[in-house]
Amino acid sequence: MNSKSALTIFVFVIAVGFYSCNNDSQNTLDKTEQTNNSNAHPKLILTAQGVKDIRAQLGTIPIFDKTLATVKEEVDAEIASGIHMPIPKDYSGGYSHDRHKRNFVVLQKAGVLYQILDDEKYAKYVKDMLMQYEAMYKTLPVHPKTRSYARGKLFWQCLNDSNWLAYVSQAYDCIYNYLSEDERQQLETNLFRPFADYISVENPQFYNRVHNHSTWGNAAVGMIGLVMDDDELVQRALYGIKDANLDANAKDNDGGFINKDGKAGFLANLEEPFSPDGYYTEGPYYQRYAMYPFLIFGEALQNVKPELEIFKYKDSVLLKSVNALLQLSDAKGNFFPLNDGQKGMSTKTNALVSAVDITYHFGNQDAGLLSVAKAQDKVMLDDTGLSVALGLKENKEEPFSKTSINLSDGSDGDEGGVAILRAKNEDLTLVFKYAAQGLSHGHYDKLSFSLYDKTDEVLQDYGLARYVNIEQKGGGNYLKENKTWAKQTIAHNTLTINETSHFNGKYDVGSQHHSVLHYFSSEDETIQVVSAKEDNAYPGSELLRTMALIYDEDLGKPFILDIMKVNSITKNQYDLPFYYFGQVLSTNFEYETPKTLNVLGSKNGFQHVYLEAKSKKLSNNGQFSWMHQNKFYSLTTITNPNDELLFTRIGANDPDFNLRRDPAIQLRRKNTDNTVFVSVIESHGNYSPVTELATNSRSEIKELKVLLDTEDYTAITIATVNDKTKIFITANTNASKKVKHAVEINGTSYNWTGTHYYK
Amino acid sequence: MNSKSALTIFVFVIAVGFYSCNNDSQNTLDKTEQTNNSNAHPKLILTAQGVKDIRAQLGTIPIFDKTLATVKEEVDAEIASGIHMPIPKDYSGGYSHDRHKRNFVVLQKAGVLYQILDDEKYAKYVKDMLMQYEAMYKTLPVHPKTRSYARGKLFWQCLNDSNWLAYVSQAYDCIYNYLSEDERQQLETNLFRPFADYISVENPQFYNRVHNHSTWGNAAVGMIGLVMDDDELVQRALYGIKDANLDANAKDNDGGFINKDGKAGFLANLEEPFSPDGYYTEGPYYQRYAMYPFLIFGEALQNVKPELEIFKYKDSVLLKSVNALLQLSDAKGNFFPLNDGQKGMSTKTNALVSAVDITYHFGNQDAGLLSVAKAQDKVMLDDTGLSVALGLKENKEEPFSKTSINLSDGSDGDEGGVAILRAKNEDLTLVFKYAAQGLSHGHYDKLSFSLYDKTDEVLQDYGLARYVNIEQKGGGNYLKENKTWAKQTIAHNTLTINETSHFNGKYDVGSQHHSVLHYFSSEDETIQVVSAKEDNAYPGSELLRTMALIYDEDLGKPFILDIMKVNSITKNQYDLPFYYFGQVLSTNFEYETPKTLNVLGSKNGFQHVYLEAKSKKLSNNGQFSWMHQNKFYSLTTITNPNDELLFTRIGANDPDFNLRRDPAIQLRRKNTDNTVFVSVIESHGNYSPVTELATNSRSEIKELKVLLDTEDYTAITIATVNDKTKIFITANTNASKKVKHAVEINGTSYNWTGTHYYK
């Protein structure tokens, strides 16, 4: 079925849209002609024509020349240190793992150097190492470490073996003509073909699924197939293993389904996890990881099989996804750690270098991408990197435009999404998640958000509980606290009901549902709003969260208005935490601190939280100010007399110190059915430890009030300390942008057209 | 007695040394001639000749021109906003406080602008504001806030009033000739003279002591005296109030003695707190604060009374102190937070701009100071700033040399000190404190240390418990936790015995003692050592701590060897904490974590610490690795089977969240008299969240052993994972650099000359 749907799409693809190549048709045509001869090598990533062009420009293209010099220095040092071929034995972070990882990276680079510099020493180095791999691989047993659901041979998991093959196929392509036919025969028979078979037909549970692991496997098999001119492998890459009968209920190490619906192959992996907007359902951290195989195999297919028009597939989704990924980063270029994401991963990662260069070259030569490439300070050493280097040389770059954007989730774009609201050139950025489960790396955090200012996280998403590649922490793999803490709802800035996670933390249930966009509005810079519903996370309870980024000259700095409306058929305990960083500055309420710290609960993440303080009597607004990295922030939230504001800190029941000791302020409301939570979050001032001056250290908010809260409308007033009052009304049922509303509140009529009112 | 000793020193001063002016005698002579006419104004900081020179160079001196433009913009904005003269009522951080603070800063700048730009609008602005102060001050009562031992009138403490006068006297000097004699008479009679009297003769408990507060008072009174040509005030500034009979046992708000020994006046303040090396006994944070009055009044005295040769006083201690202060900063220029010091205060503070410019101009034109000035990116708008601007214009700057340095404490340099050991261009910096009490801002932390690498604190000194000028936190003043936590011994990286602070936390006792240098050796870059003794902190116990910074090519990166040797007549409990930052990475021992967090003790700071985990059985070495800001660190320490390694965290009994939740690993040894603690601290690797590669994530240390520990010698072997073994032997009794030692250990003879052996 996969092959059929893919072919259908090939026929209907229309070369229009932002990323289409139609304004570059002459170039495209040239490339097609140059690369159609499948016997010329290199042809996979570097092309024979590209090598000619690069050699002609060398010395006049600064960023390319610089990258080349760095790579040459690196490879020369490796050649000088000799070939290291340890017997595989370690997990990530161990010597044999790191060494073989290093080897495939160096092999790819050495192949490129051979082509560009025309120096045989690099070809010989590649050949010698490949021959050693050939000698070792033909008798190599399955890797001795047993933790993976799909053990590799060079590495503890097939995933890493696939990484190896995707890189090494490029090296092989580069020295293909340098080798004799016998040598090629020897490598292909004893190393490459069995290697490709091992990670595919011998491990269908790894290969034949929709998952970032499989994408790597598909790309690896396809790329070596393209180099070897082995169409069976290329077909297996594109469409998966025919007749692989996998248990529809089997799961991998992360608890994800192996293959519930039988979809497989590169095209299915392109089809399924990407929404039409280019959002990748696992989130940006895994998208970044998947980008390299997606785009490098895309580039290879475009070079060797241009008739597939892979970059136009699904309305150019591959190229769109690069824009989506760049948008999913904070002002420093760090990706938002949605779902399992490790903080600090950024647009500077190598996978984004290839993504940006390939998108620039095969897409629309977007000048904004040049400024991203400039910040990356390196390019691909191939035809695409040459394009970027020439663009930069000609000073064509413009700032990459970070905007407010709503990214749909789901292969058809109808399974929720992620909205990003930005104000004042990223002075404040709201990330609002109302997406689908996100496969096995998904967290149970419907309608959650995180908040960023220009330099810091203001309210954090915890990210994953893992120290990637740091062997001392659980072999560099996922820690058990990833499941017991990081994935749980209470670990996120969203609502937990009755100390239970969304969908009861059950992956099978969560995977069947997604939140639903109510409306998204970013046209008016004064007030940008996103609103979404979640009716399935807690059966019997309906959540509607409406978040506005208000940047109103009347009120000063941009701030967030957060309205979480709940309808429930039962009386519940609600917990709404806000995970801040830094030091408590002040509160407008009294609180008591216990002598000893006890855990907040017994399960679903609550067992990992200490209670550091609890509010005494609250008035109608609870206000909490804090200080972090010399900046002042405040949360103001509407409170009932029986509400509690809890000061919590992560770290309980953490016998290996796997969790960060980060704090939260948590609003708790008990024994309540229908209710609404209304809060404002400000980043309002800063402190200089050098001048010792505090600027705007106090909240601008005097009072928040619910003016009206019905099934159809919620109206909030925001009064500031400067005695200005604003009213925000959101339509809770009718999200049409065209409908006219008329509401009377306390004798005043409010009339407007569209989703919301603000004045 | 002060006047007598000061006069004696004036006679004996010899113009030699690093900071002398003898290579600049022509310039000095010129200045003397120019400024001897005490009727010419300005004369105090700006001089009439300086103004001429500056006007001639304007537009050709970039850093000066830039500073001038910034100041002009700032003052023009203030002039446009009008004059604000609130009735004094607030503590630090409140409006009236901040406004009057702003006023004096702007007045000083406006005065300078009048002189340099020759634009009467600035003179008029200064005059108008001074007249409003005159109108208000003559009937102004004592400030309504009562917390200070010396309440001011414009501010809640005389200290801030003194700040005001020190700045405003400069403004007055600048517009002196612009005013009519009547106007001057009016201001001097109703404002300046009574103001000077109020902060001096009416508040002798503030003015007549050796303390940074008094230095401000003395400078303020002296500067207005110099402008007004009022020699009585100048004499009062230099020598204090005659016959002020103060209670020798009275204390200030910080618990410091007001005036135990009757010393007072600017010269006494210069004499007493500065050691001959220029170390200021309160530590760099307060020295920085004191620098401005010391140097600005020094400049004023040099300009108006050059015959005093103030910059040669006490072997040029004023200028030496600037070098000492610059050395007391980390690689980022942040001052080490010894005693009460707020982190983040740096060499970029305005007080250091004046200090650096004045030192450059009146000192030896040290080219290293120009690079500090360049980083400050501004200069004084006076003769000294002109010198610096011309130096930078002529590209004379050289890197400021940060070195290993031993700074003695005490007015005669015989009351302990602070040693700084630096390796590899500040890749690792050890700060070792064996100083005197440090007056009322001193902490009880004999033989404590802190450790820095190029970008971070590795093992921290907590600093003060205060949020300076952030009114929400205790009015911006010292918090009670400063006494109950920050000053206590357990808050520091040194030895606490029997859960009691040094000197039992008694200021009267601590002030009578200081640690004693055993030896300091920084000649050999491979191994730099400082060793000091403390026999009084715990009567009956003698502490000898020897710390080596080893940078041995055989072993790789620099690391710290720490030997704390204790002899005691009683069996004790010892606690030796190491305050790290970040996440626990690994240990070579098992530990147990409690379900609830309990406090570690009941008093002396222990009540502020939670116990997060405790080691089970230890072997002969306890090793602990952690990760912070993507760097890897390890502590390896020799342990006995009955020792405990405690994982602690600050924050218990902290009802207002005044303390940071920082962790420590703490070695506890019970029921022991004589013993030795031996540890190695490494900064050994780093992690990139972008490449996700961990480099050198593990300790290089395999084992530490005590080979010998006698009264005379302690010998340690350091074995690395690469099977290299080094021996360090320190002489515990004879610290002569010339004496020959011969020690036989396990049949091997070790022979060397000097304090220590390393091979």
Q: Which features characterize this protein?
A:
Alginate lyase family protein (chains A, B); alpha+beta; homodimer; 759 residues; Glycosyltransferase; 19 helices; elongated; disordered N terminus; Beta-galactosidase, Chain A, domain 5
Would you kindly provide a brief summary of this structure?
Chains A, B: GO terms for molecular function: lyase activity. With 759 residues, chain A is of the alpha+beta class. The first copy, chain A, has 19 helices and 27 strands.
Written overview of the protein:
Two copies of one chain form a homodimer. In chain A, strand 4 and strand 5 form a beta hairpin. In chain A, the strands form five sheets. In chain A, strands 7, 8, 9, 10, 12, 16, 17, 20 and 21 form a nine-stranded antiparallel beta sheet that branches. In chain A, helix 6 packs across helix 7. Chain A has 759 residues and is of the alpha+beta class. Chain A contains 19 helices and 27 strands. The two termini of chain A are 54 Å apart. The N terminus of chain A is likely disordered. Helices cover 33% and strands 23% of the residues of chain A. The interface between A and B is large, with 56 and 56 residues.
Mean pLDDT of chain A: 93
Unreliable residue stretches of chain A: 1-37
Total individual domains of chain A: 3
**Rg of chain A to the nearest angstrom?**
27 Å
- The CATH class of the largest domain in chain A turns out to be Mainly Beta
Sketch the major β-sheet of chain A.
9 strands, antiparallel
Q: Estimate the helix proportion of chain A, in percent.
A: 25-40%
CATH overall fold name of the largest domain in chain A: Beta-galactosidase, Chain A, domain 5
- Total DSSP E strands of chain A: 27
Query: What class, by secondary structure content of chain A?
Result: alpha+beta
- First-last Cα distance of chain A: 54 Å
**What is the approximate shape of chain A?**
elongated
How many separate helices of chain A?
19
What is the second-level CATH architecture of the largest domain in chain A?
Answer: Distorted Sandwich
The most extensive interface between chains reads: A-B, 56 and 56 residues
Oligomer: homodimer
How much β-strand is present in the residues of chain A? 15-25%
